[in-house]
């Protein structure tokens, strides 16, 4: 039995990686120094795994931005608009694909399965792929020569890569497989020639709901690839769910299969027990939760390993995390600020490696070999379980009483629309923004000073008020119709609420990559969640006091708070969602009572929380919608509830979006190059809706014409009476000048559209 890892956080203990990327982009770090710095980070990450005694260390999982983008770059799949001239794309082209450039809009970015990690969507189009650089080989050589590590190269599997790409029709799938097969073959042959014994090929798509023809394609791919390089062994890795069609997957002609035994709902284990496991293959046992942050219940993991051991001999077992550790923070050791009971119950990437090594040791020599560690881990989990915060009486009562809580608005949508229009008298095509304005270095450093105690509360509050005032003035000057306060007091839309609600803890350095250099510090829900006092009322009311225009109150919804936090594992997620929903309802009511007439409850993570298996969708959506409605249903007819979603594959969940019953919804659109708009040809939607008219993830400023054409496209399928004009998402990552210039263009484009679409008397 051996221990293995599947991928390691890139960002470094202190987010060195993020800082290096941003310095390079800002022109503060030269290209050569940038490469040097990234190499140092890469080697430190490998060393962390080596020092903890991991037997199988992945190489090639490191990236300059995103591993899917790397795969596209490796095959020369660079869309024409980037003026690419062959070879492995240089940094300018590479980062233009990721972030856009003056001339070219960025590639689309979307969620990596059901995580908060985002990848860059490859665009296949007319391009003929070719191997521009064997990245896994380079990574292998470097780890070997620099650290003496015989690493295991990691590749995004061909089928997953294609399924995550765009720019081809269903009929073109098979020809694209044919085009990529020789290139994957070449990568493998070169690795084989180098003497690389094994590669890890990630095919997480195999854990989603598959059709029979998917399996036919996958079988064809792996039959061919094992022949291309017969001297190299392929470990086919799946994660995030049980594999669909277990028997077909484990009989693929590869040398090893990696399965997730944490997020599989027990189905992988059932399948192994029922059907056995091929005698000629290695089983990668995803035993340690690669997405959660709790210490493992080591004894139950050993039991699981034992059950698997009945079907698979020990020499063919690899003990590994359920998925790449990319999704958890680097080290819990530095979290000295946390309450000891909680800290002792945590395991981040480094601690997970230690757990893997322990379990492997026990697997090799029996549980006795780790008796004292087993006891410690048991004690720390139990101590947390006994903490009074786990079972607050008042919260328990509210949940028990859930059935009697209102979960629908009293007035019908038409009645509400009327009442709201009377109250606000908004023009045709009202303009607004999604909530946040730029989080400048000045704001971040002010917050840091306040946190360190260098600034008093009142000093910091006064500073935040200045920012709010500044941006209320900007919004008036721009002529927007519905204002926001700007979210300057928030570090992050989820972490902020986590800090204010009971039952949450927040770390000092528990960062996880979200996209590119952007990281999040998910709060930890360790106890029952409860509202303590108003969280957003003061800032919102202050903003409203400065203007006649409506200011939207701005809250993060229950499902997004749930999905973007690390959640306790002793209660169903559904129940935790209701606890959050009821706490947010208290905030919604406080805002309404303070005179705020529009309240936006953001649910960008609603779609991402969708289970990977279709058959589980309706259950999830039912409780997710119920949680949203629990938070928003008690307001008066004339109070307008908004919601916002980004990266929304709208057609997947249109019924649930309708069922949320928000008066106005805003959805990201532009980075998918308007594809979302097309779905309204098939689906009707009759409430207020804003489809983002420009991409906020890129520093590029859209022109009036570009925005105008987005509006035109949307109004081909939606009515001007229901349409709102807004950017795709919040503007926190943008600079002041970009923001003002883009919004100015947005308002100009709206004025033109108003003339064009006004109902002529
Ligand atoms: N949780 C979450 N998930 C999300 C989103 C989101 O907004 N939140 N949006 C979507 C896209 N993802 C995003 C994820 C992160 C960021 C983002 O801007 N992250 C910031 C960090 C935000 C933050 O928590 N900032 C803190 C701490 C910032 C910090 O690094 N402080 C410095 C010091 C600051 C200075 O002096 O400059 C330090 O501690 O060293 C604050 O403002 O207080 C970043 O990586 O830079 C944006 C979008 C989807 N998923
Ligand atoms: C990721 S969705 C962001 C919504 C939030 N209100 C903002 O503007 O930042
Ligand atoms: Zn958004």
Automatic annotation (TrEMBL):
Q: Which domain of life is it from?
A: Bacteria
**InterPro entries associated with the record:** Cbl-indep_Met_Synth_N, Cobalamin-indep_Met_synthase, Met_Synth_C/arc, UROD/MetE-like_sf
Q: Where does Zn(2+) 1 bind?
A: 644, 646, 668, 729
Gene3D superfamilies per record: 3.20.20.210
For this protein, the Enzyme Commission number is 2.1.1.14
Question: Taking every annotated instance into account, which residue ranges of this chain make up the domain Cobalamin-independent methionine synthase MetE N-terminal?
Answer: 4-311
Region Disordered: what ranges?
A: 381-417
Question: Binding residues for L-methionine, per the UniProt record?
Answer: 434-436, 487, 602
Keywords for the protein's UniProt record, in alphabetical order: Amino-acid biosynthesis, Metal-binding, Methionine biosynthesis, Methyltransferase, Repeat, Transferase, Zinc
* Chain positions recorded as 5-methyltetrahydropteroyltri-L-glutamate binding sites: 15-18, 111, 116, 518-519, 564, 608
Q: Locate the Cobalamin-independent methionine synthase MetE C-terminal/archaeal domain: which residues?
A: 429-751
Q: Which reaction does it catalyse?
A: 5-methyltetrahydropteroyltri-L-glutamate + L-homocysteine = tetrahydropteroyltri-L-glutamate + L-methionine
Q: Which family does it belong to?
A: Belongs to the vitamin-B12 independent methionine synthase family.
Name the record gives this protein: 5-methyltetrahydropteroyltriglutamate--homocysteine methyltransferase
Task: Provide the species name.
Answer: Paenibacillus hemerocallicola
Q: Give the organism's phylogenetic lineage.
A: Bacteria, Bacillati, Bacillota, Bacilli, Bacillales
